[in-house]
Amino acid sequence: MSNDISNQITQTVTKYLLELSQLETTSTGRDIFMKIKECVDRKGIAWEKINSVCTDGAPAMTGKINGCVALLKQFLGRELFSYHCIIHQEALCAKDMKFNDVIDPVVRCINYIRAKALHRRQFRVLFEEEINEFGELHLYCAVRWLSKGEMLKHFFLLRREVLQFLVEKQAMPDERDLLESESWLCDLAFLIDITQHLNILNWKLQGKDCSLPIMFNLVYGFKAKLSLFFDKFD
Question: So which domain of life are we looking at (predicted)?
Answer without folding.
Answer: Eukaryota
